[in-house]
Every structure is written in C-alpha cells, then in structure tokens.
Design goal:
Blueprint (H helix, E strand, L loop, with lengths): L1 E6 L3 H33 L22 H14 L8 H20 L15 E4 L7 E2 L2 E4 L3 E6 L9 E10 L2 E9 L13 E6 L3 E5 L4 E3 L3 H4 L1 H13 L5 H35 L2 E5 L3 H5 L4 H7 L1 H16 L2 E5 L23 E3 L6 E3 H21 L11 H15 L7
Length: 414
C-alpha cells in the first residue's frame, strides 16, 4: 500500500532537494541520449547515409543498458563532483526509470522516451530503509535530515516502510510511503447481492437496480478561472518571477480539480459497495474514447480512473467481489428476453420489439452486464448463482473462456 503525506522542508532543505531534482534530470537526459545515440548508430544502412547526423560508435560497443550505465555512474562521480551530493541509490533509481521507459516502449507499444525539460523532473526515490524513517511528526530523509510531516492518518501496526518517494507539486512537497506487511489476504469469492454498472457521459454511472448518477463536471466549475489565469500568463515575460508564480497558481487549480474528482469517485465507490457484495463492469478501453470528439468530457469524468483504479481498490478493502465482463453488444441486447435490439447513441430509451420492455438504455445495459457476470461466474465455478439460462452454445463457450481468464487473476487487478 502507499500513503501520501505533506512535508514542510526548511529553505535550506528545499534548495537542496531542488538541486537534486535538476541533477537527476541531467542524469536522466544523459542516459537517454547515450541509448539513443547507440540505437541511431545501428539504424544507418551500409550503402547509404542517414538523413540526420549520427554518432559513429564501434560495432563491438555493448548496448548501454541498466547495469553498464549503473557501473559508469561511479566513474562519472570522479569527473563530476556535484553528483556526489545526491544519494547514490537515488541516482541509480534514475537509471532504472530510463530502463523502465524503454521496456514500456518495447512491450506495451509506448512511444520513444522523451527528454525532460527544466522543471519536468518532479520526484526522486529512496528505495531502501533499514529502520522506519518516521518518528513522531518528523521523517528522516538520507542526506537531507529531519523534515516535519503531517501524519493525517497513522501508519498501521506491523507494516514496514519499504520506499519513500519525495514529490514536488505546485501546492508543496509530499512524500509517498510504500508500506508492506507479511500477511496473505485470500481472494474474495462472488457472494451476496450483485449489480452491473454501465458508465457513460450522459450519466456517469447506471446500475442494474435502476439507480442513475449524473456526471459532475469538475473542469467546468473552474474553467473560467483557468481561462483568466492562462490569459494573464500569455502576457508575462518568459523566465520572470511573475510568470513562475502564475504557473504555480495554475498548477494549484489543476490539482484542485483532480483532488475533487478523486474524492467524489471514492465516495461513489463506497456507495456502490454499500449496496452490493458483487459488482460487474465492462472491460472497456477508454483511451479510444479519449481520442474522439468527446475526449475532453471523457478525461474530465475520469471513467478509466474509476473503473481501473478506484473501484477495484475500494472493493478489495471492503471485501466485495469485482470483475469485468465482455462489453460487446451490452447496449444492443434486451435484458428481459435476450433479443437483439439495434439502436444508435442518440436513442436513450430501450424498447424491445419482442417482449415490449421499456426502460432507460443505460439501466438495461447494466442489467445485461449483471446477467453476463453471473452467467460467467456460474459457468466457471459450476455453481448456480443467478438462474440465467445461456441458450447459445457459441456464446456459452466465449463466456467460459473469457471468465476463466479473469477468475485466474486476483480481484484487485480484475
């Protein structure tokens, strides 16, 4: 688990931490440039030259991976003495970030890592502690000293602090404590009352029980204030103190928007856990929705944050079973008779031509999600939970394969 607390460093400590961030940024950019030059020297073909100038690196030169760069860091400290001021493990974690970004590019299809501009490197990590650095209302950071901390919630007993990340935000300095305990938590089985939830933009959430929750517009509430501040920012001289102060004010407004959104989503997740012990949701990729014409509203609602981060974590804490189901055709199917009722996005009322069922479209979709979830759990576990009859053999096999793959994962990551 991770806990975040506010810290209040002195002027001397803050100056030192800012210099650490800039040193980490320079190490990050140098390591990234070293890898890009090695890759660029291998892209040029034998019979032609590259359109860009590339460094000529010997063919037998090894790839500058994590461990070679980590070894060269010791030699770099002899040439650049200011690197010795930063904690050694903090600099090693910077090289780990570079390596993780290249792994993400290869495995998950992310773009090529970018260089960090001035002020874009905002955190550094202490990856190891022998004893707890928190004593009373202070935390001891290596080479920085004792820093006052606001423990707004106590650290649980029998939990050890593994890592401490120092984060710089526009509102101040924070520490993120990663705590761990040697306990085994059993997976939550499906039990109790179940609901299916359908998320959208007209209504943020609609449940299979008929409850519909409107989408709060967090960005629109402070849109005018941001517009005025950014208009003033355009007239400020670059690299001036007034421009830096205005950028900090704008950042605080964005933090206020994000904090209000996260607080509302946590309260909504607890509200859902009070109603049911089993929750089913659609397995959607909201990155596609964020690129469409309604992308601004999708990002403002934070649908992906709610379904992928907030709700699984609250369900894990509350002992509620949470799993995602196949999203294909949930809004085109009648929850009462199973008939296929085609309708576009402009049609917000579900009207079945077979059984005559009439209800809101999102509520009908939530009931279909709930039925799919219960049928999938029933097929995978062999228990009768819902009485829902699957009549299509092809649909039966598809749901069996899908839910077996989901039931193998812990409920927290489902």
């Amino acid at each position: 688990m991770t806990y975040r607390y506010r810290i209040y460093p002195s002027l001397e400590q803050e100056t030192r931490m800012l210099s650490w961030l800039e040193t980490c940024r320079s190490v990050y950019n140098y390591a990234l440039r070293e890898r890009k030059d090695w890759i660029g020297s291998r892209k040029c073909q034998i019979d032609r030259c590259s359109l860009q100038s590339e460094y000529i690196i010997p063919a037998d030169a090894p790839y500058p991976g994590y461990y070679p760069q980590k070894k060269n860091l010791t030699q770099a400290k002899k040439v650049l003495p200011h690197l010795k001021d930063v904690h050694s493990q903090v600099l090693q974690d910077v090289l780990g970030r570079v390596d993780a970004s290249f792994e993400a590019m290869r495995q998950r299809g992310h773009g090529f890592p970018r260089f960090k501009k001035f002020g874009q490197y905002r955190s550094f990590l202490f990856p190891q502690f022998k004893t707890s650095p928190v004593q009373g209302n202070q935390i001891k950071l290596p080479k920085i000293g004792w820093v006052p901390i606001t423990l707004h919630r106590p650290i649980p007993d029998d939990f050890d602090i593994k890592t401490v990340r120092v984060v710089r935000k526009h509102s101040g300095w924070y520490v993120v404590l990663c705590i761990q305990a040697d306990v085994s938590i059993p997976e939550v089985p499906p039990h109790g009352h179940s609901i299916g939830i359908d998320v959208g933009l007209e209504y943020f959430l609609s449940t299979s029980d008929g409850e519909q929750i409107a989408r709060p517009r967090f960005f629109n509430k402070l849109h005018r204030k941001l517009e005025l501040l950014q208009r003033c920012l355009k007239r400020k001289q670059k690299r001036s103190n007034q421009r830096a102060k205005l950028i900090q004010r704008i950042g605080r407004v964005h933090e206020q928007i994000a904090a209000s959104r996260l607080d509302w989503q946590f309260k909504l997740a607890h509200h859902l856990c009070d109603q049911a012990q089993t929750i089913f949701a659609e397995d959607l990729d909201f990155r596609i929705m964020a690129k469409g014409m309604l992308g601004k509203h999708t990002l403002d609602a934070g649908l992906g944050q709610f379904l992928n981060v907030v709700l699984p974590w609250v369900c894990f804490k509350r002992g509620v079973y949470y799993v995602k189901v196949d999203p294909n055709g949930t809004s085109q199917e009648c929850p009462d008779c199973g008939a296929r009722v085609k309708k576009d996005l402009s049609v917000r009322i579900h009207e079945c031509h077979e059984c005559g069922s009439v209800k809101p479209r999102d509520v009908a979709s939530g009931q279909v999600i709930n039925a799919r979830g219960l049928s999938g759990v029933q097929i995978a576990s062999g228990r009768d939970l819902s009485g829902f009859q699957v009549t299509d053999a092809r649909q039966d096999r598809t749901k069996l394969e899908y839910f077996k793959s989901n039931l193998e994962k812990p409920a927290l990551y489902a």
